[in-house]
Amino acid sequence: MDATAAPVRPAALVPTPSASDAPEIRLEGISKVYADGTVGVAELDLTFAAGELTVLVGPSGCGKTTTMKMINRIIEPTTGRVLLDGEDVTRVDADRLRRRIGYVIQNVGLFPHRTVRANVATVPRLLGWDRRTTRARVDELLTTVGLDPAVHGNRYPAQLSGGQRQRAGVARALAADPGVLLMDEPFSAVDPVVRERLQDEFLRLQSSVRKTIVFVTHDIEEAVRLGDRIAIMSAGGHVEQFAPPADLLGRPASPFVADFVGADRGLKRLAVTLIDPADLDHPPVVHAGTTLGEAAAALAGAAGAVVLDGAGRPCGWLPAGRAGGSGTVAAAMRPIEEPVPVSATLKAGLSVLLRQDVDAVPVVDGGSYLGVLTAGTVHATLRRSVASSG
Ligand SMILES: Nc1ncnc2c1ncn2[C@@H]1O[C@H](COP(=O)(O)OP(=O)(O)OP(=O)(O)O)[C@@H](O)[C@H]1O
């Protein structure tokens, strides 16, 4: 099986002896001055909301990794505090702290001489879980991340593809059901196609497990795709802007942020802004069974009409030029492919519009027709989303 394999299923079916809720993480005045005097991070205050995926993004050397590693104290802060749900963990036992926090790094860091199962079982073993519970949890998690326990469980990391190793790394980090996951460029070692797939699977997984995730990347595309919130950082761990992706792209707080998110930020916003039913257009509607003569009257000078089938679902578009005369609308209409669901992003809607080379595509909520999406309505939604985020 390759890295483009099985879908992700919801996790945590096997009860986990140490299951913990996802906490809020608060950094208070946290700094790191390295032994040689380098200031990695200076006086940073930042709160990661419980159950959200927050991305730290910024140019090389700005302090992303230092910030993240101070949360599980792989790097000890020079000053400041780390609070998990209000509990100061800056001075608790570091090993115990790390068992509450899953950790995924670039190139995974799997133990090469242990099988995949043994790797995933690392923390449950440290926590003293019994063998049966551990085995069940490990196999469940492998399945969840798209690895077949029977096929991949007894392999060694070198016998997996890059994407499969990355999946095993995620399974290992989730094994003891920690409330927090720290992820340091976890998908950057695989090719772009596999990376996108891993990102999609990971988003689906997160929507069911809802961990508090701190995710480091230097790739703004990845940040926008994954983050509930993004902190854009500059040298010394300075946070230039901390906002949801749509706000960041729509209203960069500084020239640094505008430069970092790129000149095509308008296009990037298409992928993070949902269709808004309030902006849809409402051309005339005709039913497939009506006559073309009746349709001409309904059009009343409009460029065309949306055609609905017997169940009220959009099934075609009747251009004004085809209305009038004898016959039914069904015989003269231009059939449409799948309507666009209202839960889609503007990018997905625009993509259908361009692919079908039409001026308007119908939008549906389940079986109900809501209106049509056009280039103009896309623009209106984008404009309004900026205005309302201010
Ligand atoms: N052990 C160390 N000793 C001295 N300076 C260090 C050490 N580790 C990191 N630094 C410095 O601290 C700063 C922040 O480093 P950090 O690794 O947190 O940046 P980053 O944003 O994660 O970078 P990258 O994207 O390149 O991984 C950099 O200037 C780096 O050179």
From TrEMBL:
Annotated GO MF terms: ABC-type quaternary ammonium compound transporting activity; ATP binding; ATP hydrolysis activity
Enzyme Commission identifier(s): 7.6.2.9
ABC transporter domain mapped to chain residues: 25-261
Domain CBS span(s) in chain numbering: 333-388
PROSITE patterns per UniProt: ABC_TRANSPORTER_1, ABC_TRANSPORTER_2, CBS
SMART domains assigned: AAA (SM00382)
Keyword field: ATP-binding, CBS domain, Nucleotide-binding, Transport
Domain of life: Bacteria
Family: Belongs to the ABC transporter superfamily.
PANTHER family named among the record's database cross-references: OSMOPROTECTANT IMPORT ATP-BINDING PROTEIN OSMV
Protein name: ABC-type quaternary amine transporter
